[in-house]
Description:
With about 270 residues, the protein is of the alpha+beta class. Helix content is about 40%, strand content about 25%. It is built from 8 helices and 13 strands. The strands form 2 sheets. Strands 1, 4, 5, 6, 7, 8, 9 and 10 form an 8-stranded antiparallel sheet that branches. It has a 5-stranded antiparallel sheet with strand order 11-2-3-12-13, with helices on one face.
Amino acid sequence: MPLLSxxxxxxSSFFDLLRQSRSDLLPQMQIKLEGLSQAETRExxxxxxxxxxxxxxYRDGAIIAGDRRATEGFQISSxxxxxxxxxxxxxxIAIAGVAGxxxxxxxxxxxxxxxxxxxxGVTLSLEGKAxxxxxxxxxxxxxxxxxxxxIPIFVGYDVRGGRGKIFKYDxxxxxxxxxxxxxxxxxxxxARSTMKKLYxxxxxxxxxxxxxxxxxxxxxxxxxxxxxxxxVRGVFPTVKLAVMTGLQDVPEARIREICQAIIDRRRExxxxx
Length: 273
């Protein structure tokens, strides 16, 4: 089956190309809730959910992080799920919500940006990338209305402006820029409370990573759907940095070391009390 007809002009958007010619390939079109029984619909809505993700700005850019736990109803469905994905060389996306559509949207967004760059010969501006993601979240609204919600956080380094930026979204595709920090998901409120106490402008890279990890640890203590650092299984949160030189992964060994330092400090405080 040809992907394009003679009358279609999707421009440089891969997402629009699929929507016009093969909408059945889009993530939100692969699940049909009509005609399902109540039990089947409930089971579908209890698909694995990603939980807590966060982002914050610091002196050299922005960090984005997420825990590794996915829940299915009141059970843990995965302890090693990835919620933070590379979008392109200077940006990343983290997604909370139903795991399957979340991962598909993150991968489709990466293809969307790559497709644009190959056709136009230039990369989208950071604002343009944020708007593209907004369109994709809005297209998922019919599924969100039936419980299959996808909520992303998008961060990137604005090469033109010389600083990191954070964008949050609602289920309708509304896009809002955050100036300092943000967290969402089942433990988002607890993570935001911690960042509110610890965040300050001009954080160094090490300090920003520590603030983000401490926020995830606090969220894990208060929210059953959020997974903290697991030293027994060797499972730790995912952290990426969006800086001028490009997107960077924080090594697991470094994350483990910072998490251990946070826990050791808290133990010392408890002993002193």
